[in-house]
Amino acid sequence: MKQKKIHKVFIDGPINPDFIAEAIAKHSDKKNIGAHSLFLGQVRNDKIGDDEVTAIEYTSYHEMAEEKFHEIREDAFTHFSLICMHIYHSLGKVNAGEISLLVFTSAIHRADAIDACEAIVERIKKDVPVWGKEIFSNENSQWKTNN
């Protein structure tokens, strides 16, 4: 039995808007797609006490994270009528205002694309061992909790 290809998920640093545009453009020749859904996770400059988040430094248990991303991907194709799907997550420092997560689903109908995208994001937040350390303007830091 042929083993499914493990797709590269991690990107060093922020996910560039040009990268997102290229991902979208690559699907313009696929005439069987009727809908795309995208989720872009952007680093916020949250106020915590008297300080402001200027960046998040992402780290992961890389091998386990890759396995979880693969499992989430395969489950999405099993549970939703997707034509294609992409997940990209940043590692390293991502400044406030920059993109750290891209989930991109494509399907014949919008409900499958939207529902799958939402389910994938929720699974990533819950199941994937990726952590973010919030870096503050005063150069202090703390580990972020997912919410």
Largest sheet: 8 strands, mixed
Topology pattern, helix = H, strand = E: EHEEEHEEHEE
Query: What's the CATH architecture name?
Result: Alpha-Beta Complex
Enumerate the spans where pLDDT stays under 50 for 5 or more consecutive residues.
Answer: none
Output the structural class: alpha+beta
How many beta strands in the DSSP annotation? 8
* Count of domains: 1
Give the CATH topology. Aldehyde Oxidoreductase, domain 3
Measured distance between first and last alpha carbons: 39 Å
Q: Tell me the β content.
A: 35-45%
Q: What's the pLDDT, averaged over the residues? A: 92
Helical percent range?
Answer: 25-40%
Q: Considering the protein shown, what is the CATH homologous superfamily? A: Molybdopterin biosynthesis MoaE subunit
Instruction: Provide the CATH top-level class.
Output: Alpha Beta
**Number of DSSP helical runs:** 3
Shape: elongated
Query: Over the alpha carbons, how many angstroms does the gyration radius reach?
Result: 16 Å
